[in-house]
């Protein structure tokens, strides 16, 4: 019990000392800045794949608040109506640069959690952020494609081999579990590569598991709260959807940073040292 209380006190101290609310707001800004370039790139790319846009949006609806989804859909449909041959190249450049700024902010937050300086040259540090961004984009696309194609594969097996409806239920549960695993892999890679510190896999697993579960629960809870209790539209008018999106990004950024702080606390405990500030 004492260990748990000690951990909670240390996390509360770091929450204040490392200015986690401010860093979360910074991440929310960069997330918002990179969202639409990334979605333009994604939906332009999907035009070359046998995958309906609606199937991808249905996956996002699981976690995002409804009014935020309306805002995203409205802007995406407007942009896609005017797409041209240059849209893919321009959108990927915008998405990568904007998202790498957000990734760079995450790197700074993790370095602060571990009390290490960013002594890598600018081009190396920015290169790491861009490589992590590429990795995140690839994994996100895979995470989006697997459940959708998994549904098609499940229906094919169901009809081809005459499996029972129980098989279809189990298959659907399995394909959604794949998204959880991929999300866990994303956070694990983020916590492993982002800090300017040599770490091993075991050093980041607990923070990655916390971030995965915490992000899913927080997103679902916030979506339920917005849908049933809060009325941002009445307060902010036409900006309601944007405010909801920013709050969702803010909470997501906070979960990511808290996972990094958790790993840093365990790192201090393992090495038998205390943080002094």
TrEMBL record:
<feature type="transmembrane region" description="Helical">
    <location>
        <begin position="205"/>
        <end position="227"/>
    </location>
</feature>
<dbReference type="GO" id="GO:0005886">
    <property type="term" value="C:plasma membrane"/>
</dbReference>
<keyword id="KW-0472">Membrane</keyword>
<keyword id="KW-0812">Transmembrane</keyword>
<feature type="transmembrane region" description="Helical">
    <location>
        <begin position="128"/>
        <end position="150"/>
    </location>
</feature>
<feature type="transmembrane region" description="Helical">
    <location>
        <begin position="170"/>
        <end position="193"/>
    </location>
</feature>
<keyword id="KW-1003">Cell membrane</keyword>
<keyword id="KW-1133">Transmembrane helix</keyword>
<dbReference type="InterPro" id="IPR017039">
    <property type="entry name" value="Virul_fac_BrkB"/>
</dbReference>
<dbReference type="Pfam" id="PF03631">
    <property type="entry name" value="Virul_fac_BrkB"/>
</dbReference>
<feature type="transmembrane region" description="Helical">
    <location>
        <begin position="87"/>
        <end position="107"/>
    </location>
</feature>
<protein>
    <submittedName>
        <fullName>Membrane protein</fullName>
    </submittedName>
</protein>
<feature type="transmembrane region" description="Helical">
    <location>
        <begin position="27"/>
        <end position="49"/>
    </location>
</feature>
<feature type="transmembrane region" description="Helical">
    <location>
        <begin position="239"/>
        <end position="266"/>
    </location>
</feature>
